[in-house]
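Issue 218. Parser rejects a valid record. Input:
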Amino acid sequence: MHHDSHTRVFTGASKYVLDEELAKIVNISIALEMPLLLKGEPGTGKTMLAHAIAESLSMPLTILNVKSSLKLVDCLYQYDTLTRLNDSRFGDSQRDVSNIEDYIKMGKIGQAFTSDVRMVLLIDEIDKADTDFQDDMLDVLDQMQFDIIEIDKTIKAKHRPVIIITSNAKKDLSDPFLGRCNFHHIAFPDQDMMREILRVHFPDLDYQITDACVKTFYQLREFQGIEKKPATRELINWIRALRTDPDFRAKDLIVGKIPYLGILFKKSPDYQQAIAQVRRLARR
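Output the parser choked on:
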């Protein structure tokens, strides 16, 4: 496997506000050729980071969304037996039925290995898979190759992809898994960082509105008994809604009149809880 001597350094991307430590760990992971495991609660921009890395390094991005039912072999390749069966029955296909290789399609990891250019491979929400899947997957990523059993062929990676793995903070991964990755915990942005993020999304947003929205948003995140706290995406959508409402005033928020709570709290019990607590705030 050949490597570019002038590997570009990741410094951030157009819509992604990055802290320095995170930029460092991304570049170290690329240099050490280790997968980078990002943990953090939903909404801290773990998935966005993979998009930002791909954009910044001008590499294509492929995303493997992990589901609990996922089999590792499907991430590597699929053997399309059904099409082959149809071709052999109806015989009007361009493919050669006796050549099984024509019916092998690459899965997401297979695509990253066989690509002619180096790719960013995002393995999203690895915590949804069981431990065996996780460990077997890392074996494949370590060895940078896998076997297609049906045709007795080994697929070796043309280029080692830049591997980003995300996990929500709730579940613990196995020690061997953690030992084979570089690890970074992305904390939820603080208020200053959040103002930076909002400036990227709303360059012309009035300071008073930004200030009132950010303060209110962090207050709402502190509410007791909320299962799914509102995250950055919800804040951005909420501000969009407030901006399209001609009757909205920043001072409403300060006195506890908080519209569109349904944009911030997506689960019904959270929404009910939020409404009750906002009413209490407004009475003060």
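Fixed in the parser; the record now loads. The chain has two domains: 20-185, 191-283.
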